[in-house]
Amino acid sequence: MKSVLMGLLMFSFALPSLRAAEAPLSFEQAIASASTPKELAALMKKNFRFTKDEKNFHETDHWQSPKEIWDRKTGDCEDYALFAQYVLRTHGIDAETVSIYGAGGYAHTIVIFKEAGFFRILNQAKLERFHAKSMPEAISLLNPEWTWAAIAKLKASRGYIRETFSNSRIEQPQPSVSPHPFPL
Residue 180 in 3-state DSSP? Predict the structure, then answer.
């Protein structure tokens, strides 16, 4: 009986440390914990839930900052991409948020980064380790039917175009680009 009581007493002292291990990560801890693309994909898969902007914000397009998606734990493709870009860049990995467009209104946002000399993709929480030699090639491996893409940046909850390029395998004109915001 005495050994059972001692065991329970020891367990009760260990319980706070077990609870601490289960405590949610802060934004800073999350960034620090995901130093590789594989760790980043696992972090996003564990912590984020895909939800359309209409449900989260009652508007068709709202780009969250990396901190906002971490705090909300929910977002859509561009929110995942912006978070991934931020984390990768924090760890010294060059990364770009890229919005892809295609026929029938197809639109999707991913992050493209270089690893081991190849362009790779984080598509929401899925790591695609393609052996692509260019961004267009990486996008074609993800979606061969894409027509054009835009390297985008976040500004005041909207996406802005920095640069565009097209799929050379598909003939379709790109929209003209102006210095004004372009809804991605």
Answer: coil
Whole-model pTM: value is: 0.81
pLDDT of the chain, 184 residues: tens digit per residue: 555 545 544 555 555 555 455 689 999 999 999 999 999 999 999 999 999 999 989 888 899 999 999 999 999 999 999 999 999 999 999 999 999 999 999 999 999 999 999 999 999 999 999 999 999 999 999 999 999 999 999 888 888 999 999 998 886 555 554 443 445 4
Pairing of the two strands 95-102 and 106-115: antiparallel
> Domains in the chain, ordered, with CATH?
26-166 (3.10.620.30)
**Please, what's the b/e burial string for 38-49 (b: 16 or more CB within 10 A of its CB; e: otherwise)?**
eebbebbeebbe
Q: Which residues neighbour 109 within 8 Å (Cβ) at sequence distance 6 or greater?
A: 77, 78, 80, 81, 97, 98, 99, 100, 152, 159, 184
Residue with tokens 């893409």, as numbered in its chain: 149
DSSP designation for 157: T
Closest CA to 109 of 131, 133, 83: 83
